[in-house]
Amino acid sequence: MKLVMFADTKGETLRPGLLTDRGVVDIAEAVAPRTDMRAIIDDFDALRPALAELDRQGTARPLADVSLGPPIPRPGKIVNCIANYWEHAQRDPRELNMFLKNPDAVVGPNDVIRLPEFTEPWAFMHEAELALVFKGPAKSVTQENWRDAVFGYTCLIDVTARGEGRITWKKGSWMGKSFDTFAPIGPCIVTADEIADPNDLHIQFWNDGQLRHNYNTDDMEHRVPELVEFVTRIMTMHSGDLLACGTNHEGLGFLQDGETVEISINGIGAMRLTVEDPLKRSWERGVYLGADSTHHDAVRRHRPETILRQSDASVQV
Length: 317
Fold this sequence. Notes:
twelve-stranded mixed beta sheet, about 15% helix, alpha+beta, Fumarylacetoacetate hydrolase, domain 2
């Protein structure tokens, strides 16, 4: 099943629904008195038979007639992996590490990514990622039992302010990840039973129709079972908490005023957002090819001694 939060028109109070091939099915009555996605996740096993019936034959409204919001408007916490992709063996192994991202930064489909009126970061970039949605409380979960803690999956764009090159502004605190609107999620939460292997999903991201991120999660250095074990060893993950699995940096690029961006993960779905910048700044369009880029064209330009397998290039430009 694919769970969403939606309203009749943008700005109205969100209510829960199911995203089906027919459109969006309202499940507010079926899950009452629960109105919060986290409560639905907590009680999903009991709710599943009724929701499965609605998924099959409930009255659906065309997707164009409703407004989707973020499936979890304010997660308890968002934990993000640092890097976590081999990027086709262009870098040395790294220990698994994570940081926390501001849960108030969440926005959803057709919302606006607003760049801050703040000129210390030199630029702003996108990072398209798979995010795990937890069912909790989950603490000290082993790699063998990782599925017990994962309710489902969603798409996440880790919008990032840069200090220099592609280094996150305020490295160490990672505050450059936490400006308002810098955590778009959606369009839905697909339940875990719909995804056979989260380390075999194709992630794509377009900016004004230009393909940037284009990679498979099988390139993940520390795979999903290890991520679940690591984070739950440190903290309790509650229902609706998110863990973003990191990104392949080969497709990084700038975000700037007036652009339309789209993220898509097969098996989950796609969502679009627009970008606004009150300062109307501009940067070079296209995939970032600076000296610290891992895109193959940048590696050949700046690190010609590196051995590349062209067939592995995740982005063709």
